[in-house]
Design brief:
alpha/beta
């Protein structure tokens, strides 16, 4: 077992938002390494391909030395074994997120007792931001500059 405090921040990041970045920045203060794990999630029919989403996250976090970005298509518990990380970071924006996240946290813990899930709330200014809100706005060619990191916005515009 590694002595490095390593945590996994999983998600689809379709696209990465300022709320995600807020969680990443705050998690960097708590851990030696954060692995942002971009889920394939084909069942969710993402707007951006796995490769595009990985590129977005890598571009947005390029100046963060503690960040490693990986794509995955497996159970989170299997990924945690592969990466030698027993801490999962999840964001909670609202009470509506809590029930789902609690269920997932318990399911993961039932598969691997050593796995801990830590829930972080984004800063109040980002509490309403979600990838699905951003995608909805993008579908109507609306402005998302205030919702996504500028590096991600450039990639989104390139893929539009």
């Amino acid at each position: 077992m590694s002595t490095i405090k390593r945590a996994i921040y999983p998600g689809t990041f379709d696209p990465i938002t300022n709320g995600h970045l807020d969680i990443i920045i705050r998690a960097c203060k708590m851990f030696d390494e954060i692995i942002v794990a971009v889920a394939d999630s084909e069942s969710k029919k993402p707007m951006f391909s796995l490769q595009q989403r990985i590129k977005m996250v890598k571009t947005v976090t390029k100046d963060f030395p503690k960040i490693k970005v990986v794509g995955f298509h497996s159970l989170l518990v299997d990924l945690s074994d592969d990466l030698d990380a027993n801490i999962i970071i999840r964001g909670l924006r609202a009470v509506s997120d809590f029930e789902y996240e609690l269920q997932m946290g318990y399911a993961n813990a039932s598969l691997k007792k050593e796995l801990e899930t830590i829930y972080l709330m984004p800063s109040l200014e980002h509490a309403f931001v979600s990838s699905s809100v951003v995608r909805s706005i993008l579908n109507f060619h609306g402005k998302v500059e205030h919702l996504v990191p500028k590096e991600a916005l450039m990639l989104i515009k390139c893929n539009a």
